[in-house]
Structures are given as structure tokens and as C-alpha cells.
Design a protein that fits this description.
Shape: flat
Helix content: 40-55%
Oligomer: single chain
Radius of gyration: 32 Å
Number of strands: 4
Distance between the termini: 85 Å
Number of helices: 37
Largest sheet: 2 strands, parallel
């Protein structure tokens, strides 16, 4: 491409002062030339222009080296701190020794401001800048406060202290450089509200063992963290640090009991299993009763047995505590685990009138009618601003394209990045700091951009091509019109007109995706023919003609695309839901959290209710324990997307019914009894046609016994039609059988309750 006058003049001056073809390590000592030459070099370097996008090329590629040396020359010249930050962000290699040498002549306040800005860089692609800030902070005996910086420091510290990876990271400091400011960094991280887990937890454990920080400081921080982290892995890390690394003693447990009790009462499962028995041994009074109750409800069978043993030997329980714990102990007396059941029965015999194991306390479940079907909302990318783009960037996994995560957040991010770069390129660069040149020359480092999946993933291709064209295209053609990611014809027509007005080049993958997503209504008219064209493998093709062909021949099979889409050369082999949202897709079985949760949330952003197969896939996804899946099921119900009439347990994706009863019970507790009741019967009916009852079926049948009084109460209130307790084919299939299996007895118990209420 042809470079601008500024950059050409800069390279001329650059050559005149002897910098051309010099190695990077000479940058701190080479002559700078006259003040006028320095101004020319700075002006050219700040344009950010590059001759070529050289991702993947060696760092000593002549063109790459030439541009880096120009930036370093400008850095040594008269520049402001913001200009220095921009120059550093445009470097392809951040060599600490070279950069430190180039900044050596600058005032301390200057370099402090520059490094502070680099420390505040967010996102995965800002790691190089933050590592540079770490080196400067270590060399100057200080610590910056941004969360991303502190986590970067911890990552570097772990690599230096515990692994042999330093040879692969030559920019890392030596071990001796980490230690002097370790305490300051850890204290700063705690003040900033970061949890002592992950890399920070590892460094904290090391610091406590080496007496860099006080042991009580470490214990207090971990106890605080246990109560605030939300992800299971984070909790597991905190508990492991507390129990295995710091080896908290009983005396220390007692000293930190208030914080630990609060975490246990918050149903922190990892903490319950690891510490509840020890906590119960040192607590007294109300705190002890609360801890016991939570552990008996949420602990594993092993934890429950340990707690019950302590209860059996406890001499200081008040009458109030016995009355509070009695009902739960009575329930456990009927538990399937022999040890738990035996311990609970012995406790009840000792307590006397505290409870009867044959009469567990009945729970109440509310019957909520299915809401009306929602109206599909418009897709809103939000305000086109630096703040909005920065906010959504925090929601986007850096490798979303590689992991096939495509949802509302990722679409917002790409659409905002493209439009902000068109409106204000410099502003966009503040959020996307690795963008190094202007108007379609530089590829912005959008998350996942470097992982091209080839022609089988048009979403990855769109990201790659849009990154190269960012700043030169006014908007994203494939930006969704609605939250299901579909694109309306009127919206596409408006966007195409913006391209015509701006004389912009159409990105092929973007147009392909827009045509795949196109939702055609009866009222839509053809797009007027214009001169706008797109470069396809066969050559230039008129865009309006392609759109009109897409309206006449929409996608009906993602793997057998219409002729007008095959001309692009793409094959759709992944991320079907995001490519062709108007088709009926399920939930891929290979998805794991957190990708599963994000997929589920996008999955329930749809116009019509789920079909039987989709409903079972969504319910089965609850087995993952992903909180986002739980939220997705709740939202799907409130949007009217889950209908009792479409329940068919024959679509359950597994042979076993293990965990089904637990899932259905949780749904009933969340107010979805209207779905759970017919679903239980459907599981019974499905199992009745199989040679052997699936594992977990008896628990489903017994749950139905527990739910029956709640259903009958709803029917009696006349808010629910009597038909919900009629024609229960699954119950009938087992109630008519002879035998004493748990399933048969439970089905007969349900039928007996129903017959008592017949009109």
C-alpha cells in the first residue's frame, strides 16, 4: 500500500540519522539527530501506519524491525506521556532492557505516568503492556493498583517462583526482583478487593511460608475471599489454600469463626465439606446450630455422617437448637446412606420427641401458571462510546471464536468496535490498544482474531476480515436486528446504503453471515440494485443481487447452502445457532461450562417455544451445575418458551436418570411445578417401555409422591384444571404392576392420593 507523506518523511529522517538496519538493542544509544528531524520522526510514528500486517512473521523481519525502530526513535525524542504510551503499544516486541534504556533519560514522573497507563490496560491482549509495567514497578520498588495489573504481577510471580518456564519468557524478572515488593503488591491487591485465589493465592501461600507477610494477614484475606468468590473453582482454590497450604489450626479456626461461619451459612459447598466438622467442634450456641444445619442440608454423605457423630456426642446443645435441628435429622434418618441413617436414628432416640423418621417434614411447592409467550426484543448494542465498548469487552472471553462462543455479548462487542472505529478511530484504539494503523490497514486485536478456523467458520472469518478493515467500514452488516441474532431485511437495506454513501468495501464474511441470518417477512421488498459489490472467489458480484436471491431462497439446511451462498466459498460446520439462528438447533453435548452457560442463555433468546427435544436438552444441561444454565431455564419459563404440552422425556439425552430427581426438585422449588409434575410422569412412562428401569427412576417416582399434595392443593383452589391429575400414563404404567420395588410403591402411593380427591 502507499504510505502517507508523514510516514515517508519519517523514514527518510530515520535513515538520515543512521537508524536504518540497526538492531533493536542499539536503540537506547543511537544518535537522535536534530530537533527538526525528531519532530518529523515523531509525527510519522504517531500515525500508526504500517506497510504490511505481519502477524506470524519473525520478530526480526526487516519490515517489522524497521517500524519498531522508528517507534523507539520517537520514544526517545520529545513526546508527551500519552504519546509515549501510544508508541509503546504499537511496538511488536516489548523488550524491557531496550525500553528501559530508551526511557532512562526521561524524568521519573514521566515514566511513572506512562507505566501507570500501561498497567491499566485491560483484556488478554494487554498482557504484554502489563508485563512491562510489572518490570518497571519491580525496578522502582512500587506497585500499581489496577486489577488487571495486579493479576498480571501474580501470574509473573508464579511463573518465576514456581515453574521452569522463565526460559520461555525472557522478559520475566529474576526471582530476586520479585521479593522486595511482594508484600506491597499483596497488600495492594487486598485493599483493591481482589480474592486470594488462583495466582494471587499461590503467591500469598509462598509469602506466608517465607514470612514475607504475617500469617494472620494471609488467613484473614483467605477467609474474606471464601465468602465473596462466586465460582466453584475459586472456592475450591480458597479452601485448598486455607486447609492444605496454610494448614489452619483449630485455634485459628476459632479466631476466624465469624467469617467462616458466614461462608458456611452461605452454602459454600467446598468449605462445608472441608471445614464444617472442625468448625462444629469449636463453636458453641447459635453459631454452632447454624453451621450444623447448613452442613446437614448441603454437605456430602461423608460430611453429614461426621456432623451427626459430633451431634451424638455433644453435651451442650440447647433445647432451641434441638428443636431447630430435629426435623432435618428426622429426614436423614430415612436417608439411603446406611451410616447417615443409623447416626440420625440414634440421635433421635437420644433426643426423644425431636422428630419421627417415618414422618419427614413435608415441603411446599408453588404452582405457577405458564406465562404468555414473550415478544422478541430488538438487539441493542448500546451507546457507541469508549465506555460502552470497554464495559462489554469485560464480558467477552478472549478466545470466544476458538471456543465457538457466539452470543449477545460477543455480537455487541464486534458491532461496537467496528462502529466506534468508524466514528472515532483514536478513541477505539484506547480500548483496542494493539491496533497500530489506520483505515483498514491494521488488524485490531479483537478477541479470538488470531485463531482462524478456516472456511468452516464464517464467524471466525468475519472477525479476521473485519479486524483488517476496522476503521474503514461504517458498520457491521451482520449486526443482529433481534436478540436471536437474526437480521431483518429493512436493517440490512439501511446498512448497505451506509456503505454506498461511504464508498466502503464490503467484507465478504460479514455479508455472508448477514445473508445466512436474514429473516424475511411477507412485507419485505427487494433491495434496489446499486453499484455496491463484493469480492468473491469468482470475482466482483453485485451485493443487491445476492440479497434479493437470499430473500427468494432462504437457508433451510446449514450444511446444504443455496447457490448464492455457496459462491462465497464458506462451509458452515460450527456455531450453527449463531450463523443461521432461524433454524431449529439443539444444545451440543460436548459443551462444558462456562461455554455451556453462555450458549444456553443465547439458546433461549428465541421467538417460539422449545420443542420436546430442545426442552430435554436444556433440562439436561442443568447437570453441569453452571449457574448460567439455571438462569437460562428460569428465563425460558418466564418467556413462555417451556410448555407442559411439549414435555416428552423420551428425548432425555442419556440412558440413565441419575440426578434427574434432584434437577426436578430444584425446578419445583423455583416455582416450576407446572412443568415438573408432568415431567415426572413422562419419565415414568418412558422408563416403562424399557427392559430394565433406568438408574435414578425410583427417586423420580418418590419425588412425585412428595409433589402430589401440592398439585392437589392447587387443583382444589380451582386455579389449576383437574386435568393435570388425570391421564397420568406413567403413574398408571407402574401402579398397575405387582411387586414391591420403590418405583411401583411410589406410583401406587400417588394413585392412592389422587383417588381420594376424585369428584
Amino acid at each position: 500500500m502507499e504510505l502517507s507523506k508523514k510516514i515517508r518523511a519519517a523514514f527518510t529522517a530515520f535513515a538520515q540519522i543512521g537508524w536504518k538496519n540497526q538492531p533493536r538493542d542499539q536503540a537506547p544509544t543511537l544518535a537522535l539527530g536534530t530537533l527538526e528531524q525528531q519532530k518529523i520522526i515523531v509525527a510519522g510514528a504517531l500515525t500508526g501506519e504500517r506497510e504490511h500486517w505481519y502477524a506470524g512473521e519473525p520478530v526480526d523481519n526487516p519490515r517489522r524491525l524497521r517500524h519498531d525502530m522508528l517507534q523507539l526513535c520517537a520514544l526517545r525524542s520529545e513526546v508527551t506521556p500519552p504519546q509515549a504510551v501510544k508508541l509503546l503499544r504499537q511496538l511488536s516486541v516489548l523488550d524491557w532492557d531496550v525500553i528501559a534504556g530508551c526511557l532512562e533519560s526521561k524524568p521519573q514522573v514521566f515514566t511513572s505516568e506512562v507505566m501507570g497507563a500501561l498497567a491499566a490496560t485491560r483484556g488478554e491482549f494487554g498482557a504484554k503492556e502489563r508485563r512491562l509495567a510489572v518490570r518497571w514497578a519491580l525496578a522502582n520498588g512500587t506497585a500499581f493498583t489496577p486489577e488487571a495489573y495486579l493479576r498480571q504481577w501474580a501470574e509473573v510471580a508464579v511463573r518465576v517462583l514456581f515453574t521452569q518456564e522463565r526460559q520461555d519468557n525472557p522478559q520475566d524478572p529474576e526471582r530476586e526482583e520479585i521479593l522486595p515488593t511482594m508484600r506491597e503488591h499483596l497488600e495492594t491487591a487486598r485493599r483493591e478487593g481482589l480474592a486470594a485465589e488462583g495466582d494471587l493465592g499461590k503467591v500469598l501461600g509462598f509469602a506466608a511460608s517465607e514470612q514475607v507477610v504475617a500469617r494472620d494477614f494471609a488467613l484473614s484475606w483467605v477467609v474474606e475471599s471464601v465468602g465473596v468468590v462466586s465460582k466453584p473453582l475459586q472456592r475450591k482454590n480458597c479452601v485448598a489454600l486455607l486447609v492444605e497450604e496454610l494448614n489452619i489450626t483449630d485455634e485459628e479456626l476459632k479466631a476466624h469463626a465469624p467469617g467462616l461461619c458466614a461462608a458456611v451459612v452461605g452454602a459454600n459447598k467446598q468449605l462445608i465439606d472441608a471445614l464444617a466438622p472442625r468448625l462444629v467442634g469449636v463453636l458453641v450456641g447459635r453459631e454452632k446450630a447454624e453451621c450444623v444445619l447448613v452442613a446437614l442440608y448441603h454437605g456430602t454423605a461423608k460430611t453429614q455422617a461426621a456432623i451427626l457423630t459430633l451431634l451424638k456426642n455433644s453435651e451442650n446443645l440447647s433445647a432451641e437448637s434441638v428443636a431447630e435441628l430435629g426435623p432435618r435429622v428426622a429426614e436423614l434418618a430415612a436417608a439411603s446412606n446406611v451410616k447417615v441413617s443409623k447416626q440420625a436414628t440414634q440421635i433421635l432416640e437420644r433426643w426423644g420427641s425431636a422428630g419421627d423418621p417415618t414422618q419427614p417434614v413435608a415441603r411446599e411447592f408453588e404452582w405457577v401458571a405458564v406465562p404468555d409467550l414473550w415478544v422478541m426484543p430488538r438487539f441493542e448494542k448500546g451507546e457507541v462510546s469508549v465506555a460502552e465498548l470497554g464495559e462489554v469487552l469485560r464480558e467477552v472471553p478472549w478466545d470466544f471464536c476458538a471456543r465457538n462462543i457466539h452470543d449477545h455479548a460477543t455480537e455487541r462487542f464486534v458491532a461496537l468496535a467496528v462502529e466506534l472505529a468508524w466514528n472515532d478511530y483514536e478513541a477505539a484504539l484506547r480500548v483496542l490498544p494493539h491496533s497500530t494503523s489506520k483505515r483498514g490497514v491494521t488488524r485490531v486485536n479483537l478477541p479470538g482474531r488470531g485463531d482462524r478456523s478456516g472456511k468452516g467458520n464464517p464467524l471466525a472469518e468475519r472477525l479476521f476480515e473485519a479486524s483488517a478493515a476496522i476503521g474503514a467500514i461504517p458498520c457491521l452488516l451482520s449486526e443482529p436486528s433481534f436478540v436471536d441474532l437474526s437480521v431483518s431485511v429493512p436493517d440490512l437495506r439501511t446498512r448497505l446504503q451506509r456503505y454506498v454513501d461511504a464508498h466502503a468495501r464490503v467484507v465478504p464474511a460479514d455479508l455472508f453471515l448477514a445473508l445466512c441470518r436474514l429473516r424475511v417477512e411477507a412485507s419485505d421488498s427487494e433491495v434496489p440494485i446499486s453499484h455496491l459489490s463484493v469480492e468473491l472467489p469468482e470475482g466482483e458480484v453485485n451485493v443487491a443481487q445476492l440479497v434479493n436471491q437470499a430473500m427468494e431462497n432462504p437457508v433451510t439446511d446449514a450444511q446444504r447452502l443455496p447457490e448464492h451462498l455457496r459462491r462465497f466459498g464458506y462451509e458452515v460446520t460450527a456455531a450453527f445457532q449463531a450463523v443461521v439462528p432461524q433454524l431449529e438447533w439443539g444444545i451440543p453435548s460436548m459443551l462444558k461450562p462456562p461455554a455451556l452457560g453462555r450458549y444456553a442463555m443465547q439458546f433461549i433468546s428465541r421467538r417460539i417455544p422449545l420443542n420436546p427435544e430442545q426442552m430435554m436438552q436444556l433440562i439436561a444441561a442443568l447437570k453441569s451445575g453452571d449457574p448460567s444454565v439455571v438462569e437460562a431455564v428460569d428465563l425460558a419459563f418466564r418467556r413462555g418458551l417451556l410448555l407442559p404440552s411439549t414435555i416428552e422425556a423420551s428425548w432425555w439425552p442419556e440412558r440413565s436418570f441419575n440426578k434427574v430427581a434432584g434437577i426436578l426438585q430444584d425446578l419445583a422449588e423455583h416455582g416450576l411445578l407446572v412443568l415438573v409434575w408432568p415431567m415426572c410422569d413422562s419419565f415414568l412412562l418412558t422408563a416403562s417401555s424399557q427392559p430394565r428401569p433406568p438408574q435414578g427412576l425410583s427417586a423420580v417416582a418418590e419425588l412425585m409422591v412428595e409433589l402430589c399434595p401440592n398439585v392437589l392443593r392447587a387443583v382444589k383452589s380451582k386455579d389449576v384444571p383437574h386435568t393435570v391429575v388425570e391421564n397420568l400414563l406413567g403413574v398408571a404404567a407402574y401402579a398397575d404392576q405387582r411387586g414391591s420395588s420403590k418405583v411401583v410403591l411410589a406410583a401406587q402411593a400417588v394413585r392412592e392420593q389422587l383417588e381420594k380427591t376424585k369428584p
